């Protein structure tokens, strides 16, 4: 299995970096779109035994928003996506898609297929939402962030960066109402810490 991982990893790195993508930590690639936006690709390994299965996920990272959240919460995610979708659901088939490598000799073919998927569907997806207006629409639409708890943090933080303090306060109020006061639940305590930190920023 290690030989398959090594072969595909090398082929994917050569193919992606050759097309202008930057290799980040782990199996993540980004492509600068300007104004703090980066197209994003994550390669999830989905098997422990041959053949090697790769589930490509594509998305968009907005650095100012992710840095603002890191400042607020103390949780740094230097390579995380802001929004992301499995690439198969952006393709015409709109279904789960997995690349497979059964032999090291298949790595180049799989890397070429990855590049075609990224250029054909992943990059246009990122470019479509590479503005704060479009990103806000994507977040509010749902389905573009795997964890809805993270969405409830991203939206008010983005409103704040857009200087829309009314919507920031409104989203925080809705979030606090949704989570309630059971501070023994980690997700509730985390949201309250976020809300308190953002409210402090609103007061300055």
Detail the topology: elements first, then pairings.
Layout (H helix, E strand, L loop, with lengths): L1 H17 L3 E2 L4 E7 L2 E9 L6 E11 H11 L9 E4 L12 E3 L5 H22 L3 H10 L6 H14 L3 H15 L6 H17 L2
Antiparallel strand pairs: 1-2, 2-3, 3-4, 4-5, 4-6
Fold and architecture overview:
This protein is α+β, with helices and mostly antiparallel strands. The protein contains seven helices and six strands. Strands 1, 2, 3, 4, 5 and 6 form a six-stranded antiparallel β-sheet that branches. β3 and β4 form a beta hairpin. α4 packs antiparallel against α5, α5 packs antiparallel against α6 and α5 runs parallel beside α7. It is elongated and about 60 Å long. The protein starts with a helix and ends with a helix. The mean pLDDT is 93.
Write a compact overview of the structure shown.
With 204 residues, the chain is α+β, with helices and mostly antiparallel strands. The chain has helices at residues 2-18, 63-73, 107-128, 132-141, 148-161, 165-179, 186-202; strands at residues 22-23, 28-34, 37-45, 52-62, 83-86, 99-101.
